[in-house]
């Protein structure tokens, strides 16, 4: 072979190699990568935007809720008398679904969910782990269901950003300014497979979930009997908030740290002004336990009730000032919904009153 021919063969070989590398490493994969969507700032505090309209005991029964009232001499809150827009009959909060679509739908059938007259809020971690994350997402999107942002949504978004070469998820405060993320916050469990399948509409949906949601007034039970908390019982009301993991008792709603809101399980003693996601940390105490003791000593005007998820290990955890709704569906436990409504009744003197009521509904998970 002449050196010229040899040279031409080498050149051809080199061009072919580059061509193959381009084909397999860049061109072909691109055909399988779904179109991407930029990640926008995640909003820290959102409003529910719905208010409850009082419903009759008959309607309560129709909806499959417990309409029995044991003590009719309860005071009415003036606030609920004012007419507001976006009135709904019920607020329904669902704990960590984790891709368990079948059970989610079963639970919604059990509570006779109607998107027209109910405001449904999922408490974060609705995707990952279970079998049908995409089906859950599509259902949430198609029924315009409200959501709280959970740590697993964060992990998936983070993977999505890596996969598509986008800016990582970040948080915004009330004035739409970016908040810094404390170092060492998130672990980065690979939830890459799901992230790769997400379409722009999925990212758009997850992106508009807020870290905290102001719920307006919610039932406040006079007694701390577990059964009472579960089936309604007699109640007045306090301001309610929804968050995936928990809130710091020593900070205002505006000053909460997004990452703590997504990951905390315990406060760290002796001052309980730090949090951890690891309950086995030294001096760690369940955040809800301390939260409840702090609310008890707060002036009534400052006390708050928190609805949250995240804590499968402690299961359904109903306390006076905190309601843990993650009952471990993913680990073969249950999927829980807390249903809240206003019920019209007559007190023992025959005077019409309106009561705050709530009731837990559950389905078993495989
Ligand atoms: C929002 O965050 C920015 C930057 O950290 C800060 O300067 C601003 O005061 C914050 N606004 C509110 C309302 O918290
Ligand atoms: C927690 O509170 C103690 C006592 O008030 C204080 O000395 C400490 O700096 C606080 N720690 C944090 C992380 O805020």
UniProtKB/TrEMBL annotation:
Residues 90-228 form the Calcineurin-like phosphoesterase domain. It comes from the Eukaryota. The chain crosses the membrane at residues 7-28. One of its GO terms (biological process) is polyphosphate catabolic process. One of its GO terms (molecular function) is phosphatase activity. InterPro entries: Ap4A_hydrolase, Calcineurin-like_PHP, Metallo-depent_PP-like. GO terms for cellular component: cytoplasm. Keywords: Membrane, Transmembrane, Transmembrane helix. Gene3D superfamilies: 3.60.21.10. Pfam families: Metallophos (PF00149). This is Metallo-dependent phosphatase. It comes from Hyphopichia burtonii NRRL Y-1933.
């Amino acid at each position: 072979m002449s050196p010229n021919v040899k040279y031409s063969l080498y050149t051809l070989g080199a061009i072919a190699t580059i061509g193959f590398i381009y084909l397999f490493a860049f061109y072909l994969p691109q055909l399988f990568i779904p179109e991407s969507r930029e990640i926008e700032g995640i909003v820290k505090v959102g409003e529910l935007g719905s208010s409850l309209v009082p419903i009759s005991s008959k309607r309560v029964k129709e909806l499959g809720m417990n309409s029995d009232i044991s003590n009719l001499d309860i005071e009415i809150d003036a606030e609920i008398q004012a007419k507001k827009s976006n009135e709904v009959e019920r607020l329904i909060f669902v704990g960590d679904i984790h891709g368990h679509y079948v059970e989610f739908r079963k639970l919604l059938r059990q509570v006779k969910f109607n998107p027209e007259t109910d405001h449904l809020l999922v408490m974060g971690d609705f995707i990952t782990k279970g079998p049908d994350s995409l089906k859950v997402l599509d259902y949430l999107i198609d029924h315009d269901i409200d959501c709280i942002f959970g740590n697993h949504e964060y992990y998936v978004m983070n993977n999505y950003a890596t996969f598509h070469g986008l800016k990582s998820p970040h948080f915004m405060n009330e004035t739409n300014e970016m908040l810094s993320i404390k170092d060492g916050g998130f672990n980065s469990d690979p939830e890459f497979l799901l992230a790769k399948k997400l379409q722009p509409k999925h990212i758009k949906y997850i992106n508009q979930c807020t870290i905290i949601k102001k719920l307006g007034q919610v039932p406040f039970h006079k007694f701390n009997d577990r059964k009472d908390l579960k089936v309604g019982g007699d109640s007045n009301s306090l301001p309610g908030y929804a968050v995936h993991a928990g809130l710091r008792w020593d900070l205002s709603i505006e000053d909460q740290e997004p990452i703590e809101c997504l990951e905390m399980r315990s406060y760290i003693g002796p001052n309980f002004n730090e949090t951890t996601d690891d309950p086995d940390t030294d001096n760690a105490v369940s955040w809800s336990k301390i939260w409840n003791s702090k609310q008890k000593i707060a002036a009534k005007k400052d006390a708050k009730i928190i609805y949250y998820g995240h804590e499968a290990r402690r299961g359904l955890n109903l306390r006076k000032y905190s309601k843990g709704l993650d009952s471990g569906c993913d680990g073969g436990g249950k999927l829980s919904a807390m249903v809240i409504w206003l019920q019209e009744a007559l007190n023992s003197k025959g005077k019409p009153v309106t009561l705050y009521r709530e009731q837990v509904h559950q389905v078993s998970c495989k």
